[in-house]
Amino acid sequence: MAHIELNLSDVRSFLSAEPESLQKRVNEIHKTIHEKTGLGNDFLGWVDLPKTYDKEEYKRVLDAAKRIRKQSQVLVVIGIGGSYLGAKAGLEFLNVPFKKNKLEIVFAGHHMSGSYLAKLVEYLKNKRFSINVISKSGTTTEPAIAFRVLKKELEERYGKEEAKNRIYSTTDQKRGALYTVSKENGYEMFVIPDDVGGRFSVLTPVGLLPLEASGINTKQILKGALDAYKRFSKPNLANNEAYLYAATRNLLYKSGKKIEMLVGYEPNLLFLNEWWKQLFGESEGKDHKGLFVASAGFSTDLHSLGQYIQEGERHLFETVIQVSNTGDDVMVPEEENDLDELNYLKGKPLSFVNAQALKGTMMAHHDGEVPNILLTIPTFDAYTFGYLVYFFEKACAMSAYMIDVNPFNQPGVEAYKKNMFALLGKKGYENILK
Ligand code: PA5
Question: Which residues of the chain have pLDDT under 50?
């Protein structure tokens, strides 16, 4: 049975062909993915990861998480892009609003704000903390700077020896600056496998260590991913929602819809949006091709972006995530004088009101020529998060191959770095800005 339901009834009238008509192409690409013969084929390790992940290392993840919870009040997770967004998306997806966890997770190295880092250093002054520094290349500027600053804090606080016991590094198996520093200092190290790229690394220690440390049941995440792996291991579009989603967005793209918005009606989905944008944006946007991926949180953004979506340029479609059971709820109370005129909703759960907002918005956007793909997930739990991660990863690879781009590189990201290094006077970049 599908854990995620994909409903295309709103979209079909916008398509020039049925997504199922792409079955032959899907079969070919599926073979390419599983036999690892396509573009970027040395980065397809994530495909089998839910089955083949390193079980011994996972045990170390569980032990390290326990140790971190014992030794610290705060875990600072340092990383950017694929070394940041998966864990952040998982934490938010599974977050219980206003509940304070025993271990607080904070992020650093995901931008270059000096003001943020200064305030973080200040915040950590009276708290016991540990660091999980994550970088596959080990040379990314943002996390490298943050690590240098926070390591200094840790060493000043605890002394070099004890600081070593509080630093956990997640990096390449045998190379890179972070690898060398970690080896040299004897930090506990976790591996990002060679054949798993940053944005496909949530189900490695990159995502699993911070999530487990925060108290999330990562065994359930892996179980969800494994079930998704099994479900999407055959290409038949009748039973493979990941490929059906990819085929549908491909047809929409070819029909002139150049922007896909991922839309949710629950705040827990906001960082899943951010992770998804990186996954699809960095994987597909190359060779002057690819959907531009954007996102919105409704109904909040119906009061901002809503106007554009309804009546702006018609180059958009939406993928809406609906959550069947959101857990706790409130009923709209009755008031005797009904001055705010809400008594027509008395006794109705807010989840019901939210569901009608979703339905009404989909109808309005359909009338405004914005097609809606509807994805329904059962609830916010660890199993569903793992399943959803794998669903999108598989869909992303299929989508990128459908437009003949290499899903696993990101050559365009280097352009800004070269200029920045030249402006900063880094050795070797002297002639870049001429
Ligand atoms: O998906 C990717 O490969 C990138 O977004 C990287 O995750 C990001 O640039 C961070 O790289 P690193 O982990 O090497 O510091």
Answer: none
